[in-house]
Amino acid sequence: KDTLYGHLVMRSSSKVTALKQKAATIPEPLELPGIILFHTGAGPRDVFLHWKADSLVSKYNCVVLIADLLSDRNGRAWDDDRSWYNHIRDELLEINEVGGNAVRTRLQRRIKASVDALQNIDGVRVNRMAGFGWCLGGQSVLELSRMKIDGMSSLISFHCVFDGVRKSSSNTIEKGTSTYLPKTLICHGNDDPFVNRLDLEAFQREMTEDGILW
After folding, report:
1. Angstrom distance (rounded) from CA 128 to CA 33
2. Which of 7, 29, 52, 137 lies 20 to 30 A from 66 at CA?
3. CB of 130 within 8 A of CB of 155?
4. At what angle do helices 197-209 and 136-147 cross, to 10 degrees?
């Protein structure tokens, strides 16, 4: 059984009460937007991710899930010996044949589990969701844009890894029915040595052909 782990960040009721007393003229929303953060190879315990989650919650009063793509109970990631991480990463990015299509099934299942987990939290506005990803997590944003899951409105990636774009297809294990495609922002360095130019061009063609707003 594939289990997803992660860290949930949201305001405590005491903080919300204090903010209401301080700015009583500003009504609190009945439902809060949800944001998923997808980590780099440094894993879900990356200090930057937790700072970013706290910053978003404090500034915008949203609910943030730091999704553990590697799904280790202790949040393990790479260390001096990357053999464990490399093995788990290879499994995560493995491309499988599904209905004649090449699909990253394990990665897409964990992405879908992340969305489901956040949308099932009381008080989260299920049709106002966003996703941020860095490096390995940026590749998750790419897959999420392919999946067209209902409720996702904005996707942002930084230093996205485009490995395997030409080998996998835009088909997914469970494509959503949303008619509103998420706006996708790809922040990419033109001289990024980790990104193959052909992969990047293939990605651009795919996004345009699939009608993704990017």
Report:
1. 5
2. 29
3. yes
4. 20
| Angle at alpha carbon of residue 88, lines to 214 and 110, rounded to 5° | 50
Between strands 32-38 and 63-68, the pairing is: parallel
Tens-digit pLDDT profile for residues 166-201: 566 555 555 555 566 788 999 988 888 888 888 888
Three-class SS of residue 147? Answer: helix
* pLDDT of 14 higher than 80: no
Cβ contacts of 52-56, under 8 Å, gap ≥ 24 = 52/132, 53/7, 53/9, 54/9, 56/9
Residue 20: enclosing H or E segment and its boundaries? helix 13-22
86-113: b (≥16 Cβ within 10 Å) or e: eebbeebbeeeeeeeeebbbbbbebbbb
Task: Kindly report the number of other CB atoms within 10 A of residue 13's CB atom.
Answer: 8
Residue 95: CA atoms inside 13 Å, Cβ hemisphere, count?
14
Instruction: Find all residues with CB under 8 Å of 187, minimum gap 6, and list them.
Output: 156, 157, 158, 159, 160
